Amino acid sequence: MSNEINKYTQDHQFAPSSQDDEIDLRELFSVIWQGKWLIVAVTAFFAIGSVIFALSQPNTYKSQALLAPASEEQGGGLSALAGQFGGLASMAGINLGAGGGVDKTQMAIEVIKSRQFASDFIQSHNILPDLMAADKWDRSTDTLAYDAAVYNAQSKAWVREVKAPFKPEPSMQEAYKEFSKVISVNSAKDTGMVTISVEHLSPSVAKQWVDWLIQDINKVMKDRDVAEAIKSSEFLNKQIALTNVADIRSILYKLIEEQAKTIMFAEVRDEYVFKTIDPALAPEEKAGPKRALICVLGTMLGGMLAVMIVLIRHFIKKED
Questions:
Q1: What's the Cα-to-Cα distance from 126 to each of 57, 155, 180, 212, rounded to whole Å?
Q2: Phi (first) and psi of residue 185, to 5 degrees
Q3: Which of 114, 170, 233, 283 has the fewest CB neighbours in a 10 Å radius?
Q4: Residue 132 and residue 169: Cα distance in Å, rounded?
């Protein structure tokens, strides 16, 4: 008798729980259905707003160039000397290096991404207005229009209103942040090819910047190597005057010869670090914005927000 009572008690103890779950689920759908017009209204509002926002965004164009790392023929001589005379030279206090060092291609990529290079690039080519104040691009005249609240094109004066420590004319720190958003430098691990791309309102500006980037990075790396070779040659000539050991002098003369080769190699080749495989073009098709995606995400966001509002409002009323 007691077993039957316990079984009856257990059955009635768990039955309301499953029934409550079923009622809650039905209640949930019922609440959503009752608030369907609010959900439709909020979703439609977000959908229309996302369409207006997507259409108000100007087109952007991406220009890119494919580059191949230039061969480093000038490094072979120093590597051979390091292996042949490294021990003897170290006795004289001369370091020929291990022959490896930092990959010049990777160094050039990091230089392009650096603040110093970006600042020099912006200032030397006077692209600060195109970078920070461009508002629209006129296809018929291939000209840029600037935001009047930021930059006065007639007087070439910055008129934006900002709080300290910022000034009407953007600083190089501000410009670097914006510059980092529009340029991209990627290296393929399997082939070693490097892609430099620029995205801008104007396709012609995007192409011009890519061309300038390639020219400038080749020149910067060339000037660095030439300056280092000249400095090394001066040091080696001083060392020759200080030693009478024939073997050491022979090493020093060969090192000077290698530095002369480095200078000659740099002077006769414009594409010092990167060789252009596929040059940049002014793109005809836009790269952004992705208006369809903006509209879809905006509509989905509105729908989810509307459902949350309906459910939250219902549970608040239920608790009251």
A1: 26, 15, 17, 12
A2: -130, 115
A3: 114
A4: 10
Q: What is the pLDDT of residue 75?
A: 47
- Could you read off the pLDDT of 266-283 as tens digits, one per residue? 888 888 999 999 999 999
Buried b (16+ CB within 10 A) or exposed e, 136-168: ebeeeeeebebeeebbeeeeeebeeeeeeeeee
Residue 100 has pLDDT above 60, yes or no: no
Helices 36-56, 291-319: axis angle to 10 degrees equals: 150
Report the distance separating Cα 231 and Cα 36, nearest Å. 78
Residue of 115, 134, 273 whose CA lies nearest to 206: 134
Cβ atoms of 47 and 298 closer than 8 Å? yes
For the beta carbon of residue 272, count every other beta carbon within 10 angstroms: 23
Phi, psi of 168 (to 5 degrees): -55, -40
Q: Is the peptide bond before 203 cis (omega within 30 degrees of 0)?
A: no
Q: pLDDT above 90 covers what percent of the chain?
A: 53
Q: What is the mean pLDDT of residues 65-77?
A: 70
Q: What residues contact residue 127 under an 8 Å CB cut-off, 6+ apart?
A: 121, 209
Say how far apart CA 302 and CA 295 lie, in whole Å: 11
The whole-angstrom distance between residue 115's C-alpha and the CA centroid of its chain comes to 13
pLDDT of residue 249 exceeding 60: yes
Strands (E), the chain: 61-69, 134-138, 143-146, 151-152, 157-158, 183-187, 194-200, 274-278
